[in-house]
Amino acid sequence: MKRQLTYIHQLKNHISTDVDLAGWVYNVRSSGSLVFIECRDGSGICQCVVNKEEVSEESWEAAISLKQESSIRLNGFVVSDERSIGGVELQVKRLEVIQLVADYPITPKEHGIEFLMNRRHLWLRSQRQWAAMRVRNGIIYAIHNFFQSKGFIQTDTPIFTPNAAEGSTTLFETDFFNDKAYLAQTGQLYGEALAMAYGLIYTFGPTFRAEKSKTRRHLSEFWMIEPEMAFYDLEMNMDLAEDMLKSIVAEVLEKYHHELALLERDTSSLKRLVEKDFIRMKYDDAVDILNSDKTAKVLDELIQQRKAEKEELIQEQDAIQKEHGSAKKWRKKQIEKRVIDIHTRVDQIEEDLRNIPRWKKSAQEFTWGSDFGGSDETVLTMQFNVPVMVTHWPAQIKAFYMKRDETDTYALGVDILAPEGYGEIVGGSQREDNLDVILARIEEEGLDPEVFDWYIDLRRFGSVPHAGFGLGLERTVAWICGLSHVRETIAFPRMMGRITP
RNA sequence: UCCUCGGUAGCUCAGUGGCAGAGCAAUCGGCUGUUAACCGAUCGGUCGUUGGUUCGAAUCCAACCCGGGGAGCCA
Question: Cβ of residue A80 near strand B, that is under 7 Å?
Answer without folding.
Answer: no
